[in-house]
Amino acid sequence: MIVDWFDTNLVSILNGFAIGSLLFILAVGLSIVFGMMDVLNLAHGALYLAGAYLGYQFAGDTSSWLGFGTALGAAALVGLLAGGVLSTMTEPLARRPHLDQALLTLGVALVVAELLAISYGNDVLRVNAPPGLNESVQVFGRTYPAYRLALIGVGLMIAIAVYVVVERTTIGALVRASVADRDMVSALGVDNRKVKLAVLGAGSALAAVAGVLGGPIYGAAPGLDETVLILALVVVVIGGLGSIKGAFIGALVIGQVESLGRALVPDLASFMLFGALALVLIVRPRGLFGAKAAG
């Protein structure tokens, strides 16, 4: 019975892993920036959309590794620069309520989304997968897109890389120390603003790269920024702020809820998404792996 169910829904389950991998790449930056640097960046979805349009710009007409690789590099660079700008803009609001940061970054998101719509129009634009990944392969007797399988692998590799950097390197230790006691780190001669700049830049770069990676699945279109931002926020809340493990597990959960929900009960898919969020908040108000508040 269970084996038959898995066999019947294998494609939807794999889609859930692919969506979850993409959501992790998008959400982990948001989780770290908000959970560790205390910056609520609602422009995260706009950075994803910018990455999607860069994917169209460099890989929309032809399927080539050069075009797709160029799009990834350009997205990472744009994300880093955008992170620097956002860090500078939010610095004066560091001691003020999160609502001020939310309004500022939301304003930035609206401006960026409008500029992209003016530049590229309102149609859904196609982004091609690289050669070799724009075909289908057999997975347990089912035909499945090779690109989505590759995306699952990329998401796993990025998850491992982010975990190692944050938890096992000197840079990660510096970031964690800045979160735990900024005054002490500052007394040791470390500029907390540079730490914030680096973290926000890395998180923004991941969001833009996620836009390129998601292009062959969702394309590039106005309104996509709002959709992915909502999903990323749900992932962050479910997983817990600042938790890499939480972002990973939360993304996989939401990926499966999204995919299986739309396949099995399409009319209730949206309710299932927010139902999962509500259930986690009732049982674990800080998220699955969120740290307890100090004091």
Question: TL;DR?
Answer:
The chain has 295 residues and is an all-alpha fold.
Describe this structure in words.
By secondary structure, the chain is mainly alpha-helical. The chain is built from 12 helices and 2 strands; from the N terminus they run H-H-H-H-H-E-E-H-H-H-H-H-H-H. It has one domain (2-283): ABC transporter involved in vitamin B12 uptake, BtuC, CATH 1.10.3470. 74% of the residues lie in helices and 3% in strands. The protein has a two-stranded antiparallel sheet. The longest helix has 28 residues, at 10-37. It is globular and about 60 Å long. The N and C termini lie far apart (50 Å). The relative contact order is 0.20.
Give the key terms.
295 residues; mainly alpha; two-stranded antiparallel ribbon
Q: Topology, pairings included?
A:
Elements (H helix, E strand, L loop, with lengths): L1 H7 L1 H28 L6 H16 L5 H26 L7 H23 L15 E4 L2 E4 H23 L1 H11 L1 H6 L4 H27 L5 H16 L4 H21 L4 H15 L12
Helix pairs in contact: 2-6, 2-9, 2-10, 2-11, 3-4, 3-5, 3-9, 3-10, 4-9, 6-7, 10-11, 10-12, 11-12
Low-pLDDT sequence parts: none
Sheet/helix structural class: mainly alpha
Order of helix and strand elements from N to C terminus:
HHHHHEEHHHHHHH
Shape: globular
Helix run count: 12
CATH hierarchy: architecture: Orthogonal Bundle
Bin the helical content: over 70%
| CA(first)-CA(last) distance | 50 Å
CATH topology: ABC transporter involved in vitamin B12 uptake, BtuC
Rg of Cα set: 19 Å
